[in-house]
Design a protein that fits this description.
By secondary structure, the chain is of the alpha+beta class. Helices cover 31% and strands 25% of the residues. The structure holds uridine-diphosphate-N-acetylglucosamine.
């Protein structure tokens, strides 16, 4: 059933909001659980469709899955014997690529289609494959299908050509049960990678250095049971912080790790937003009168590409000209055409967008084409005059749990319409 969001303009977000578990951790931790044949418990899972799909995949592979609460899952992995996850589910999310590393690690064989997910331009997985091959897997790519086989996996020294979250985690997953030591150099340093490493170590793996650019993994024979709490979602937190900043609102963003938000906090301060920072909360107060800024996306701890569209919307309400340079995904600018329908003055030049701020946006009919771009349209709708309708919200649901209810709790009038 096609659904859309209807949002009334000129609304300010006010109140407090608790942040859910991190999507990008949870989508790696569930596949990682396949590395054990025992039982694991995972708490603070976000209720997003990417997680629902992964649970269906784990069940199809033979895992027994039971929810202890809405956000807490128990997985018994004893009955898992399949190394071939169903194509129709794998195709629905990018993070299904983590099944490659975990199934290869556990069974030394995998048959899996290429992963789906947001279209942000070319998203190759050559670095993942390079890592699996270095560990001893024979990799065959045929008609969009990846088949990997290994007699055994042996630790290796792997240098990543570019900083990749997916490749770092995937190689880590494949290496924990390999013989001997694996070293990943030029590894990504995202907090979600540390979270996955902590989960693996709780199961008995020996992963050291996660969060730095050199990760060392001493292979172990098998993994056991574990309990784990997923870290808070810094992108969801950043979304509500930017929404408050853009709308001239006041929002207490709770249950977060402020350190993970350093890049966003610094940028918001730079454009004139007032921020109070506590142990596990940030209070955002904004007059709505903002300064322009230049933003460049970089791997963590740089400004996250996943908040680039939201930041672009924010900069449309600043007084002056801003520049956003997208260094991670070359085509992650598909939101611009939709924002232009609202009257935004944005010019694209190669990997940079020039934003002329200070012109009021007008409500329009928008089509979400990817997860984060879609979420940024909600913020654009809130600052514009008139009514906005956002279609394609299945993209937003992949990464934000009941987004309209979250905004209702901040006093916003927004409806989901079938
Ligand atoms: C992950 C995140 C996504 C985020 C992105 C960048 C998950 C599930 N998704 O995506 O939300 O936007 O990190 O922070 O955690 N690359 C290659 N070859 C490879 C791998 C990557 O060329 O084998 C390139 C990509 O095309 C991109 C860059 O490296 O230009 C970074 O990609 P990567 O960090 O791997 O992103 P994802 O893991 O897909």
């Amino acid at each position: 059933m096609q659904q859309c969001l209807k949002i009334y303009g000129k609304q300010k977000t006010r109140g407090s909001i608790k942040i859910n578990g991190a999507k990008n951790s949870a989508v790696a931790i569930l596949p990682a659980s396949l590395l054990t044949g025992k039982t694991v418990k995972v708490d603070n899972l976000p209720g997003i469709t990417d997680i629902h799909r992964l649970i269906e995949i784990l069940s199809a592979l033979g895992a027994k899955v039971s929810f202890r609460t809405e956000t807490s899952l128990e997985l018994n992995l004893n009955g898992v014997s399949s190394f071939s996850p169903p194509s129709e589910l794998v195709n629905q999310l990018r993070a299904s690529y983590y099944l490659m590393g975990s199934l290869l690690g556990r069974f030394k064989r995998v048959d899996i289609p290429m992963p789906g997910g947001c279209d942000l331009g070319p998203r190759p997985i050559d670095q993942h494959i390079k890592g699996f091959s270095a560990l001893g897997a024979k990799v065959n790519l045929e008609k969009g299908f990846i088949k990997m086989r290994a007699k055994k996996l042996k630790g290796a020294h792997i240098y990543l050509d570019m900083v990749s979250v997916g490749a770092t985690v995937n190689i880590m997953l494949a290496a924990v049960l390999a013989e001997g030591k694996t070293i990943i150099e030029n590894a990504a340093k995202e907090p979600e990678i540390v979270d996955v490493a902590n989960f693996l170590n709780a199961m008995g793996a020996k992963v050291r250095g996660a969060g730095t650019d050199v990760i060392k993994i001493q292979g172990v024979k098998e993994l056991g049971s574990a309990e784990h709490i997923v870290i808070p979602d810094r992108i969801e937190a950043g979304t509500f912080m930017i929404a408050a900043a853009a709308t001239g609102g006041e929002v207490l963003v709770k249950d977060i790790i402020p350190k993970h938000l350093d890049a966003i906090i610094a940028k918001l301060k730079e454009v004139g937003v007032s921020l109070e920072i506590g142990l596990d909360w940030v209070l955002v107060k904004s007059s709505g009168c903002l300064l322009p800024s230049d933003v460049k996306t970089f791997p963590y701890p740089g400004f996250p590409t996943d908040l680039q569209p939201h930041m672009m919307v924010l900069l449309t309400c600043s007084q002056g000209t801003s520049l956003i340079t997208e260094n991670i995904f070359e085509r992650r600018f598909r939101h611009i055409d939709e924002l232009k329908k609202m009257g935004a003055r944005i010019k694209l030049e190669g990997r940079s967008a020039i934003i002329e701020g200070g012109y009021e946006l007008t409500g329009a009919q928008l089509q979400a084409m990817d997860l984060r771009g879609g979420a940024s349209f909600i913020i654009a709708a809130l600052i514009s005059k008139g009514e906005t309708e956002i279609r394609g919200i299945e993209h937003i649901d992949r990464g934000y749990e009941k987004i309209e209810e979250r905004f209702h709790s901040l006093g916003i009038k927004i409806e989901r319409i079938s």
